[in-house]
Amino acid sequence: MHPLLKPAGTTGAIPISFVTPVSLDAAGAGLSPAQRAYLAATGFEPKPGKVAVLPDADGAVAAVLFGVEAEDARHRDLMLAGKLPGQLPAGLYRFADGPDDPERAAFAFVTAQYRFGRYKTATAKDVLLVVPEGVDAEALTQAIEATSLARDLVNTPANDLGPAELEAAIRELAGRHGADVYSIIGPDLLEADLPMIHAVGMASARSPRLVDLTWGDPDHPKVTLIGKGVCFDTGGLDIKSDTGMLLMKKDMGGAAAAIGLAHMIMAARLPVRLRLLVPAVENSISGQAFRPGDVFPTRKGLSVEIGNTDAEGRLVLCDALALADEDEPALMADFATLTGAARVALGPDLPPIYSHDDALAADLVAAGERVADPLWRLPLWSPYAAGLESRIADLNNVATGGFAGSITAALYLDRFVEKTKSWVHADIYAWVPAEKPGRPVGGEFQAGRALFEVIKARFPR
C-alpha cells in the first residue's frame, strides 16, 4: 500500500465532509455551537476548493469541511480533492460525507502530494488518508505508483536520462514483475531492419536503441504498447529555438506513459500477453545528423523523404509500429508527445486520440471521464493524407500547408498499421504547465489510466 494511505477502517482519522451550500445547511445540525460560530466568524463559504478546518474544545483539529460543486455542475473538476492536502495540517484523515467518487478523490488526494526530489530536498508534510470503504487499495496504489513513475521519468533532465538510462528504467520494472527485456542498440538497428530509429539517433554520442519488453502467458490476447522515447529533442538540423528546446527533456513522455501503463497491467496481473516497445533516441546535431531532403527506408518497406528533422517522433514510431503490427496484437496503442498542433487545438490537459475502431475510441473517452484522465477523439481524416505525398519517395514525414498538424501526423503513423484491427494513437503533452488540483507543475502521466480501464474491461481476470 502507498505510504500516504492507511487501510480502510483505521481509527483516529479526522473526518472530511464534502459540502455544497445546500448540504452544509443539512450538515450544520451535526456541528457544535462553537463550530457553527467559528464558521460564521471566519466567513466560510462552501465554494469549490475551499476548506474549513474545525477545532474541538481544546483547539485540536476535529473535522474538515471541503467545498465542492454540485453533482450536476456543468464544469466540475474531477480532481478537485487534490486541493485538500495543501490546505490541511499533517495528520490522518478520512472521507466522511461524499465525495461522489471516493476512488477518484483518493487518487487526487495522494497524487497532489507528489514531489520530484531527485536534486532538491522536497519538504513535505504527511497528510495521510484512510482508504475509503469499497475502494480497492491495491488498484489505487498501482495507479498512484504508475503516475509517480511516469512523472519521475519525464521530470528527469536529459543529462541523467538518455536512451541507456531509459532502458535501465524499463529493465528495473521488468525485474520487479518478472518480464523479459531485449534491446537492439546502435548499428544493430540496421541489421534488425529498424532504419528510422537508427537515422534519428545516429547523430548523438548516446546510442539509439529499441527496448522490447514482454510479459504474461503467450496464449493470452496480445496487447502491445509503444512509447516515443526521444530523450531530448534539439530539432536536429531544423533546430528548435531556445524556448522551444527548453522542455524537450519531456519528449520521452510517450515512453513514460507506456511504461506507467505497463506497470499497471503487470501489477494487476491482467490476463494478457503484454509487449512494450520503446524506441529510445536523442535527436541531436553533429556531422552524422540526418538532413532535410534525405530519403530513408522504413521497416514496412515505404521510403520516407525528410521534410523536417524536427518531426522525428513519427519516424522512430513508424518502425516500432511496423514491427508490432507484424505480431497482429488484439490491441495496440502508441503514446507520443508528437505535435504542437494538438496543444493548439485542445490545450495541454486534453490529449487527442485517433483510431479506426469506433468502439475503442468511445470506450477510451468514457473511461477518461470516469477516472479524470480526459481524452478527445479527433478524426483520421483521409483527404488530408494527400499532404504527405513526396515527389521522390513514398511519403514525406511532414505535410504541406501547415494545417491539421496532429491529424496529418496520425495519418502518417496510420500508414504503418495494417494487420492490427484495434489501434489507438494518443498525442499527449505529458506536462502540467500550471498547478492544478492533483497535478503539480511538471511531468504528467496522460492517457495511461484511461487505457488501463479499457484493457481491464476487454480482458477481464
Any idea what the shape is? elongated
Query: On the 0-100 scale, what is the average pLDDT?
Result: 95
State the total count of DSSP E strands: 20
**CATH fold-type name of the largest domain:** Aminopeptidase
Low-pLDDT parts are: none
For CATH, the homologous superfamily of the largest domain is named as Zn peptidases
For the termini, the CA-CA separation is 21 Å
Structural class: alpha/beta
Description of the structure:
This protein has 461 residues and is of the alpha/beta class. It has 2 domains: 5-135, Leucine Aminopeptidase, subunit E, domain 1; 141-458, Zn peptidases (Aminopeptidase). It is built from 14 helices and 20 strands. It has helices spanning 21-27, 33-42, 102-111, 137-155, 163-177, 188-191, 195-201, 242-245, 253-267, 313-325, 340-346, 358-371, 405-414, 448-458; strands at residues 5-6, 14-19, 51-55, 61-67, 91-97, 127-130, 180-185, 209-215, 222-227, 229-233, 273-283, 295-297, 303-305, 331-336, 352-354, 376-377, 395-396, 423-427, 431-432, 442-443. Strand 12 (295-297) and strand 13 form a beta hairpin. Helix 3 runs parallel beside helix 4, helix 7 runs antiparallel to helix 10 (313-325) and helix 10 runs parallel beside helix 13 (405-414). The chain is elongated, with a radius of gyration of 24 Å. The model has no long low-confidence stretch (mean pLDDT 95). Pfam families: Peptidase_M17, Peptidase_M17_N_1. Keywords: Aminopeptidase, Hydrolase, Manganese, Protease. InterPro entries: Leucine_aapep/pepB, Macro_dom-like, Peptidase_M17_C, Peptidase_M17_N_1. Residues 308-315 form the Cytosol aminopeptidase domain.
